[in-house]
């Protein structure tokens, strides 16, 4: 029971620190009418004023797919690393999707299902030991990207170009 309480305290501490860091970062997040931060287009504005994209990109078969945008999932995803029945570390993932600008609202509406699908992928990889020691190995990161992209495409369709891994952080317990 004490380990569970300790884990909960660590999670609240990490969450509180992340929230405070986001609130105090230079430029800050834009505030909506209810005081909550809005997250439309995760990337910084480009010279043409479009968040994260503005340029046309080639699709999988070479045809132009139009303007792209990056939509951040919002909160980080936290995955425990368990060995021998003990949680030895936590891995935090900050993810975004590369999608056509016309899909932004659809992505925002699907965020709960996306988080669930991504959690399933991340837990499955964690259980196989992928994040135990060499979680930044190129093969593991590429496998992770492919599985996350496949999960996003199952929910949103083939217009999802990529799931971007913005940050990976490992916190030893």
Describe what you observe in this structure:
The protein is of the alpha+beta class and 173 residues long. It has two domains: 1-38; 39-172, 2-Layer Sandwich (Tetrahydropterin Synthase, Chain A). Helices cover 38% and strands 26% of the residues. The protein contains four helices and five strands; from the N terminus they run H-E-E-E-E-H-H-H-E. Strands 1, 2, 3, 4 and 5 form a five-stranded antiparallel sheet that branches. A hairpin with a 2-residue loop joins strand 3 and strand 4 (86-100). Helix 3 packs antiparallel against helix 4. Residues 27-64 have low confidence and may be disordered.
Mean pLDDT level: 74
Number of domains: 2
Helices and strands, in order, run as: HEEEEHHHE
Number of helices: 4
What topology emerges from the helices and strands here?
Elements: H1 2-24, E1 56-58, E2 64-72, E3 77-83, E4 86-100, H2 104-109, H3 111-127, H4 138-156, E5 162-172
Antiparallel strand pairs: 1-2, 2-4, 3-4, 4-5
Helix pairs in contact: 3-4
